[in-house]
Amino acid sequence: MRIWQTIDAALIARLNKAVQQVHADLYPELFKPYSFADMQAAFEEYLRDESSFFFVVAKDETSRPVGYVWVQLRSVAPNVFRRGYKTAHAHQLSVVEPEHRRGFGSALMEYVTTFASETGCVQVELDYWVENTPAAAFYERIGYKPKRIIVQKPL
After folding, report:
1. Which alpha helices (H) appear in 4-85, and where do they start and end?
2. What is the average per-residue pLDDT within 145-153?
């Protein structure tokens, strides 16, 4: 397996299709249907953010990428309530459907863990939607545990 950092917005936009569709299917009132042009433009903007990193994974040196993870390094300032710290937030993880359950997502998240540690982070954090039960099962399987619960009351 090969993992590397990319700055190719078109590649990220193509790999984003599956994760965007999951969100649009689960919450059509919140998420727009996938649009390659819109995603490419958005990722071009996100790539300008020096705190954001995009890593892709392929089977080997000659294969096309089959998944990506978007990670943002965040510094949390200390205040009267808490200590300051640095964290890596994984915004999105996506692997194309035919390659699910073949270790690509796990490999990306292990890469993120190493990257976070090497950049001085104390943790990797992420969130997923409650109805996304495959994501919940995946993250539990690779060692992620709930830390904070956010609730909402629709109006």
Report:
1. 9-26, 36-46
2. 89
Contact in structure between 13 and 36 (CB atoms under 8 Å)? yes
Distances (CA, A) of 101 to 2, 7, 68, 95, 146: 17, 26, 15, 9, 22
Cβ-count burial 68-84 (b if 16+ within 10 Å, e if not): bbbbebeeeeeeeeeee
- Tokens encoding 99: 């390659």
**Rg of the Cα trace of the chain?**
16
Pairing between β-strand 85-95 and β-strand 2-5 as defined by DSSP bridges: unpaired
Provide the token pair at 87: 């964290």
Type and span of the H or E element at 72: strand 65-76
**Model pLDDT for residues 116-132, shown as the tens digit of each residue:** 999 999 999 999 988 89
In the CATH scheme, what is the code of domain 2-141? Answer: 3.40.630.30
- What values do phi and psi take at 136, rounded to 5? -60, -45
pLDDT computed for residue 150 by the predictor: 87
Residue with tokens 């997923």: 128
pTM summary value:
0.93
